[in-house]
Amino acid sequence: VAVQPASIGAATTIASISTESGIIILNSTAELGLTVGSQITLIQDLKALGKVQITKVTDQLAVANILPGAKLGGLSKDDTVKVMH
Question: How wide is the angle at C-alpha 47 spanned by C-alphas 23 and 58, nearest 5°?
């Protein structure tokens, strides 16, 4: 069964990513519903890339730790991803 886009959630773009330091920064909006401590799955092209844990949220940005097992190496600044809670 294919994942329905509506069940995935809002799209956002990557402001910065460093797989070496395990940090990803997403452009945040209220629509994303991100809260500190929450774990979200990043999705691109209907594929789950892995989980990140939100550590800080401002009006414009959300900072997250990349959790073990996440395959985010192919992502770069300005890439669009979708967020699944």
Answer: 35
Which residues, 6 or more positions from 48, have their beta carbon under 8 angstroms from its beta carbon?
Answer: 41, 42, 84
List of E strands, the chain: 11-18, 23-27, 39-44, 47-57, 61-66, 80-84
| Residue 5 parent element (H or E) | helix 5-8
- pTM comes to 0.89
Cβ-contact 49, 42 below 8 angstroms? yes
Residue 3 structure tokens: 């994942």
pLDDT of 6 over the 60 cut: no
Short-list 35, 75, 74, 41, CA closest to 55: 35
**Tokens 């949220």 map to which residue?**
57
CA distance 19 to 23: 6
